[in-house]
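ARCHIVE CARD
SHELF: 3
SLOT: left
DATA:
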Amino acid sequence: MGSLRRVAEQLRLPPHILGVIDPADTDHRATVQFGQSTVRLAEIARQSGHASEAVAELWPLVARLEARLEGGHAEREVLRLLAHAPLGLGVALGNVLPEERLATTAPGPPRA
């Protein structure tokens, strides 16, 4: 990590671009710490028949992760969470939305 930090300094890049996380970045640590738990708990809620609660938990997490990524913070742990959280959100939304509206909400591939 020290070498990556020095490379970032020499290239005048923010260290997070190279995956170096500032130990004082509490937002990152909190997101990673609680993100995986949120994904797991949302899955349990969905499987227990509480899909709307799962959506309520995952929606803010996904928004926070996407905002962090758009801000240039592409840490490995955040990317992993961003791979799992939207998937869980989509599944939970599929349980919440009525069957007849699901086709209009999530259109399939373009027709030739």
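SLOT: right
DATA:
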Amino acid sequence: MRSMPRNDPRQYDELAAEWWRPGGGFELLHWLAAARASLIPPAARPGAVLVDAGCGGGLLAPHLAGKGYHHVGVDLRESGLRTAADHGVRPVNGDVTALPLATGSADVVAAGEILEHVTDLPGTVAELARVLKPGGLLVLDTVNDNPLSRFVTVTLGELVGLAPKNLHDPALFVRPQRLIDECARHGVRLRVRGARPTLGGLIRWGLLRRERTGGRIVPTGLTAVLYQGTGRKEERS
């Protein structure tokens, strides 16, 4: 792959074949998608809409099967949207800092592995909250901002192949309290918990590389590297 600046979204075009390749560079994202989906309850009404902000290749889709949502995926890159559409996602080309969706149109907003890539965090959180209905659910996961997370995600992660080179800019990583505060400004009370990949899954991925490994993301009390968050938007008084 050509050398590009850190966090350059054009990298996803060159990595498009990795989205669904068993044991590929995005294997860990499949585990994260499953963990994210586990935080999303079945739809509470017919026609419920789930907005997948920064949907990439649509990895969340199989884990939502049977939950009753219209799955709308928003992403900057057409290459990812084409792949997402192949897996049943309704694709919408757009920027998460200016979602091309109506206010209050989503019952659930999922923001998985996107917040550590945006250069305007306040604007992005404002948009996620804007499209969420009162009482709607925000579900997210992202990377903490501290020396350990930068070492694990960038230095070590890129060295051993847990993350493609230059995909992350550690300057954009997000401390949980900052995210909690930003969500609170828009009426979403966010609760966070730590998450980590299973060691066995990481070992199998390192050894096999050509097949699904059965790895999982599991909860942990430590938010030092990876964390998940859920919060509901307050109802109108």
